[in-house]
Amino acid sequence: MIRFRSIKTRTAIAIGTLWLACGCSPVKHVPQGKYLLDNTEIVITQTTDTSGDRRSDEMVRSSDLVNYLRQTPNHKVLGFLKLQLATYSLSGKDSTHWYNRWLRRLGQPPVIYNSDLTEASRRQLRLALVNRGFMQASVEVDTLPDSARRRMDVSYLVNTGPRHRISRMNYDIADTAIARIVRADSALLTLRSGEPFDRDRLDEERSLVTRRLRDHGYYAFAKDYISYIADTAENSLDVDLTMVIRPPMTPGISTEGNAPSGEEAISIPHLTYRVRSVWFITDYAPNSDRTWQRDTVSRGDIHVVYGRDRYIRPSTLEEKCFIEPGQLYSSRDVDMTYQSLAQLGILRSINIEMQPVSAPVDGSQWIDAYVYLTRNKKQGATLELEGTNSEGDLGFGIGATYQHRDVGRASNLFTAQFRMNYESLSGNLSGLINNRYTEYAGEAGLTFPRFLFPFLSGEYKRRIKATTELAVSMNYQERPEYTRIIAGAAWKYKWSARAGRERRTFDLVDVNYVYLPESTIDFINQIAPSNPLLRYSYEDHFIMRSGYTFYRTNRRIASATSRRQPVQPTVYSLRASGEVAGNLLYALSSLTHEKKHNGVYRLFGIQYSQYAKAEVDYSIARNFAYRHSVAFHVGAGIGVPYGNSRVLPFEKRFYAGGANGVRGWGVRTLGPGSYDSRNSVTDFINQCGDISLLLNVEYRMKLFWVFEGALFADAGNIWTIHNYENQRGGMFHFSTFWKQIAASYGVGLRMDFSYFLLRFDLGMKAHDPAADREHWPIIHPRWGRDATFHFSVGYPF
Predict the structure, then answer these.
(1) Could you report the per-residue pLDDT of 133-145, keeping only the tens digit for each?
(2) Could you give the dihedral angle defined by the CA atoms of residues 192, 195, 197 and 199, in that order, rounded to the nearest 10 degrees?
(3) What is the model's pLDDT at position 561?
(4) pLDDT number for residue 257
(5) Is residue 252 within 8 Å of 264, Cβ to Cβ?
(6) Which intervals hold domain Bacterial surface antigen (D15) (predicted)?
(7) Predicted pLDDT at 81
């Protein structure tokens, strides 16, 4: 304990504390006679109808209404600390001084109470409730000024009243052809008897009907032609709702061909349109005078107009075009054309316009489709450089990527990548063959923007909108214990749906050959002295696998024109994958009666792996406001070796710890089970498993400027399927696995630069399942033993 005996020292500290208190006063920059908006509160009282029956969809929460407030207090960190306001208050009143301007940029100015904005908030709250069917809602404002502290608290007292509901849904559609389309599949309509009278849902129904009609040739139809008539009886919450679809109106025409002033308009029927022709403008410039007609190639009613050169084949564009001449216009076909053309990397921008033909052809209505394309750069190269520091061992990484986006003038993408990593090692390295970590990796691939597979119809392959990838790779690794080479080749398919929110990958075949040309004399014996079943994971082996991955999210794509996006209340993502290996090779070995060597089949004298592996990963973030969110994550996986294998290949096994795992441990330093690692340099080989479980929860908050804070807790571990000698305590048992779940907690600091996020996390061990360790370090924490620092890019989940 530090004691200040000097009176001068105590006086200086008191003056300094008083100065800081004055400098950080939240009302320092609030003008005299004004109030700082300190707190706002929405208090909701809900009433029901005379029956007293309240349905779950009648509940209204204050969090649902916060976004309608026109004025809210300064942001609070952890719910009580106005850090940004305090930072702003540290600045002086002289705005010409760079220090004051810098503090103001980092901070947030005080929110001055404004009675006009408060009244606007009251009106917006009531309007929002009325739009949701609470027609009798009322909102009152209660203000509580504190003249001495120059602060204002505002409460919005909301009484929702009962909710109106649709008792009967009717349709008033004079055009019988349109009526048939609208009523063709009533299951797709969302407005039904018993549903709330919600104006947002009414508007969604207008959009749905409009989309359906535009998919059936009604190109000129707009949702403004759709209106509603709501009939309510006195003292009743029931609403008789009628959807009305009006015909277009045109001014009356006199016999002389004029439209006299004041003459009533007459209605005309809604018309369907057919596509006459499709024009691709391959070198479109928005500000040009459209003097692009230099070279035109026609294939029936599809025309391709080239500018500088024929950088893309007409057949490629025709294959990606779902707008078919002679067919009824369909907005769905336009969207599919957008999605298919977006697969062509040589195209930078795509814009499709429809132009009605001025003179009807054969008495029908026709339109021409113009597809304006802007090309991307054909070739590009990037270079990456990074530095690392692992417990004092310095290293660096260099990466280079080359791309050619238009191989064969068909927008085939060629990619070549090279990466080199190096890290020096310190300490006693006697008996090891390398004094460093070194890795050289190269990959070359060709991506075709189409589904390449035999025995399938061209129309099916065109509509599936998948891309085909062929790739070969080589990876050379030097570790202190061994030198390893991994060579691979792959053929896979990728496709997306739901505007990119759903993605699938099918690995038709992925072949890897793992070769260890050099290792320490006792390396194999050290990792498996009494269990030879482990040895082949670190010897030469061959993997031939197939796999499938599914990914889905509801995350909205951020707009490039606005930095501040509307808050999405809930964001989730789901990833599931599965793979199998060795089954085809095992079947061939069995059918050909090949002899086993040491109990296993071999291919070209090399043992091949046989296993099945599955993983699932789910995360969900609840955004309470723009600056506060809570994220949850659960991940699980299992790999089962069988047939020609008794253990999973090392590169296919799971590991725990690290920046995206249980953050109280470093990467590959946790588990399996209660296994106790003693040498972090060489024992990483044993810290892998066949079963994985991971749970995370993280509270995220905006601080100021680009800084974000986080509080997190992690739990999880890995286990083995079999009882391996070198991984004592690592086998999974239903009766004891829960005791072996490791737990950690910590804090994080992030820097969000919009295009990328830097993450700094400090994790502390809470429960350590390792044998002969302190199992509950959260009770007696020690910095050197329990703290782990992580630096990474992007959120952990």
Answers:
(1) 898 889 999 999 9
(2) -70
(3) 42
(4) 47
(5) yes
(6) 610-797
(7) 78
pLDDT in tens, 181-208: 888 866 667 787 888 888 888 898 999 9
Query: Which residues, 6+ apart, have CB-to-CB distance to 461 below 8 Å?
Result: 450, 451, 452, 453
CA 723, 549, 558, 375 torsion: positive or negative? positive
Tokens 């995350």 found at: 555
Domain borders along the chain are 21-153, 165-250, 273-375, 570-797
Q: What's the CATH superfamily of 273-375?
A: membrane protein fhac (3.10.20.310)
Q: In the predicted model, what is the mean pLDDT of the chain?
A: 83
For residues 39 and 113, give the distance between their C-alpha atoms in angstroms, rounded to a whole number. 10
Q: What is the pLDDT of residue 309?
A: 82
Closest CA to 745 of 718, 722, 767: 767
User: Is the predicted pLDDT of residue 589 greater than 80, yes or no?
Assistant: yes
* 158-161: long-range contacts, CB 8 A cutoff, minimum separation 24: 158/42, 158/43, 158/44, 158/45, 158/60, 158/65, 158/125, 158/129, 159/45, 159/46, 159/47, 160/44, 160/45, 160/46, 160/47, 160/58, 160/60, 160/129, 160/134, 161/47, 161/134, 161/135, 161/136, 161/137
Tracing tokens 């204050």 back to the chain, one arrives at 62
DSSP 8-state secondary structure symbol assigned to residue 466: E
Taking only the tens place, the pLDDT of each residue in 418-428 is: 999 888 766 55
Please tell me the CATH superfamily of domain 165-250, with its number: membrane protein fhac (3.10.20.310)
Q: Between 633 and 604, whose confidence is greater?
A: 633
Alpha carbon distances (Å) from 793 to 382, 492, 660, 662, 751: 18, 28, 10, 17, 10
Q: How far apart are CA 271 and CA 360, in angstroms?
A: 12
How far apart, in whole angstroms, are the C-alpha atoms of residue 135 and residue 49?
Answer: 12
C-alpha separations of 762 from 208, 386, 633, 710, 741 in Å:
49, 21, 18, 10, 20
Q: What integer is the mean pLDDT of 146-159?
A: 90
Could you say which DSSP state residue 164 is in?
P
Determine the residue type at 371: V
**Cα gap 665→789, rounded to integer Å:** 9
* Mean predicted confidence (pLDDT) in 752-760: 84
Selected from 3.40.50.1580, 2.40.160.50, 3.40.50.720, 3.30.70.100, the CATH number assigned to the domain covering 570-797 reads 2.40.160.50
Residue 708 pLDDT more than 50?
A: yes
Is residue 673 within 8 Å of 730, Cβ to Cβ?
Answer: yes
Q: In whole angstroms, what is the distance from residue 149 CA to residue 134 CA?
A: 38
Rounded Cα distance between 38 and 18, Å, is 22
**DSSP per residue, 623-683:** EEETTEEEEEEEEEEEEEE-TT-SS--GGGSB-B-STTS-TTS-TT-B-STT-----TTTG
> How does residue 5 score in pLDDT terms, banded at 50, 70 and 90?
very low
Return all residues near 728 (Cβ < 8 A) that are at least 6 apart.
675, 771
* 713: pLDDT strictly greater than 80: yes
Residue 672's CB: how many other CB atoms inside 10 A? 29
pLDDT of residue 47: 67
Picking from 550, 531, 574, 483, the residue whose alpha carbon sits closest to that of residue 720 is 531
pLDDT of 565 strictly over 70: no
Q: DSSP code of 68?
A: G
Encode pLDDT of 210-238 as tens digits.
Answer: 999 999 999 999 989 999 998 887 778 88
User: What DSSP element (H or E) covers 459?
Assistant: helix 458-464
Say yes or no: do domains 165-250 and 273-375 share a fold. Answer: yes
pLDDT of residue 682: 53
Residue 512: CA atoms inside 13 Å, Cβ hemisphere, count?
19
Cβ(387)–Cβ(421) under 8 Å? no
252-299 confidence digits (pLDDT tens):
554 444 545 555 667 788 889 999 999 999 888 776 655 555 688 888
d(CA 311, CA 344): 12
